[in-house]
Amino acid sequence: MKTGAIVEEGFVYEQQTHLTVSKTSLFFVGDGFTAYDSKASLVFRVDSYGPYGGDTGELVLMDAVGRCILTVRRKRPSLHQRWEGFAGERTAQKPLFSVRRSSMIGRSRLTVEVYRNGGEEYQIEGSFGCRKCTIYNAEREAVAEIRRKVDACANVVLGKYVFLLTLKPGFDGAFAMGLVLVLDQIHGADDHGGDDDNGDRVAVGPTTELF
């Protein structure tokens, strides 16, 4: 498996890592996020700037101390709703990566192009609205997964505003979190109407698999 930093080396983990991601507000698509590791330490945050923050076409991913590490911006005009990711706060430079829908009809797959070392390509498949999707590299190896989070003590699946981002060893967590922001912008409307679970907790049996 090809690994290494795409956004920042400090967020490339040697071991498989689980981040608990949650929305900091539930009222508007594209609102803020926080991401914590298994030790309950803050790793990433995205601040919300109110109901019109998602309409600016730009989101900033910060680390635990508020340092900007990635800016994702919607490219306009764009036939396939393309988003681009830039290092830090600067968007005048060349993008690190871009994300686009693979087709106008299908909504289940996104293509990610990384502009480094001759280029890399990833595919995102599944349903972000249901919090069940996987990021694959060019060799069709799963490098990250998004899944509903299970509260082991209460034996329930938590609402979809809290979910797990699982990173395979060597995959850049900041890059993965940037993809989460893009997914939320593209499919975030699914969170605000029409889903079968409506974000509620769901009871699970003792043998339910997490992944």
TrEMBL record:
<dbReference type="InterPro" id="IPR007612">
    <property type="entry name" value="LOR"/>
</dbReference>
<dbReference type="InterPro" id="IPR038595">
    <property type="entry name" value="LOR_sf"/>
</dbReference>
<dbReference type="InterPro" id="IPR025659">
    <property type="entry name" value="Tubby-like_C"/>
</dbReference>
<comment type="similarity">
    <text>Belongs to the LOR family.</text>
</comment>
<dbReference type="Pfam" id="PF04525">
    <property type="entry name" value="LOR"/>
</dbReference>
<protein>
    <submittedName>
        <fullName>Protein LURP-one-related 5</fullName>
    </submittedName>
</protein>
